[in-house]
Amino acid sequence: MKYTPEAIHQALVERKAAVIGECIFLKVTGEVIGEYACSQYTSPQYDYPPPHSGSSRSFIVDDEGSPLALPEPLPITSPLAEVISISSAANVPAGSNAGRIARAVSNPLFHALQALRIEGIPTPWLDDIIFGAICGGPGIINGNLSVAYADVKKLLSLPEISVRMAAEYLLNHDHEPMSTRQLQRVVKAARFALRGVALHLERHPRILDSIGMMIDFDPLWPTASASADAIDAPLKPDADRRLQALEMRSQGIPIKETARRLGASKNTIKRWEQEALAA
Questions:
Q1: Integer Cα distance of 135 and 152 in angstroms
Q2: Bridge partners, residue 23, by sequence
């Protein structure tokens, strides 16, 4: 019996036939009903056109972060002039002392922030502090944050917060070095956030206790004054405050009250006690 290609295809679809090698046979009777004819494929000859080398426009980023198109270079129709090398020392302008000295703020919290990240401890409060620092520092431009949250967070993980340090670690959205103006915005937000983080950690000592760290927050405050009802209104040198703190603690005065009277942080009082016990 001769089978048409349609009948063979229908038998394969209905699983009444099977294929072994190049032969198609019925499963019930074993009758060969067809055979595949294989031939070598030869691709047609086709000439592909060469790729078109179109010119693409180049852009640069100005100090405000806006893209500026560069003018397209004109084709060279005349021979190039001879290149004369000039010493680079002759092009260096004389140094100037004008302007403000670049500030560099030491970051004593970067070890703690790195430890919290390594230990996998959630820090939702850090997000609120950083966003608040951006809004209260460099501010919002055209309804958008003027600096990126990730850039501020990266600066908080460095031992120093300065424009020089930020220039080594931060890039703009085009993965190119940031402009000086944008770096200044990020540094300003990071300085705002640094004191916010310090205030939160000082008010929630259990966070530092969970990673076994102690931090002296006093250097972060530019001016420290006792409360209105403090015993000693002017601050005393650290040596005098330390002796008075140890004396007050030996009398059983709580750490919180001792810190309030002396205008110091509770972690500083604890550190003084530990140093006295270890001596």
A1: 12
A2: 20, 35
| Token pair listed for 19 | 């294929």
- Cα–Cα distance for residue pair 155/162, rounded to 1 Å: 9
201, part of any domain: yes
User: Do 155 and 161 meet the contact criterion of CB atoms below 8 Å apart?
Assistant: yes
Q: Is the dihedral of CA 100, 193, 148, 162 positive or negative?
A: positive
**Which residue in 58, 76, 75, 80 sits closest to 67, CA to CA?**
58
Over residues 85-110, the mean pLDDT reads 58
Statement: residue 273 has pLDDT above 90:
no
Q: Are 145 and 167 in contact (CB under 8 A)?
A: no
Tell me whether residue 80 is in a domain: no
Assess if residue 42 is contained within a domain: no
User: pLDDT at position 41, please?
Assistant: 75
pLDDT tens column, 213-257: 888 888 777 654 433 344 333 444 567 778 888 888 888 888 888
Judge if 230 and 272 occupy the same domain: yes
Q: What gap in Å lies between CA 191 and CA 200, rounded to an integer?
A: 15
Asked if residue 267 lies in contact with residue 216, where contact means CB atoms within 8 angstroms, the answer is: yes
Q: Can you tell me the mean pLDDT for 1-12?
A: 82
Residue 158: other Cβ atoms inside 10 A? 16
Tell me how far apart the 2 most distant CA atoms of the chain are, in Å: 116
Domain containing 247 — which CATH number? 1.10.10
Structure tokens at 44: 């047609």
CA angle 184, 104, 188 (to 5 degrees): 30
DSSP 8-state assignment for residue 211: T
Asked if residue 265 and residue 199 are part of one domain, the reply reads no
Structural domain of residue 249, as residue ranges? 226-279
Tell me the C-alpha to C-alpha distance, in Å, between residue 5 and each of 31, 192, 211: 15, 80, 76
Q: Tokens for 164? A: 């020089």
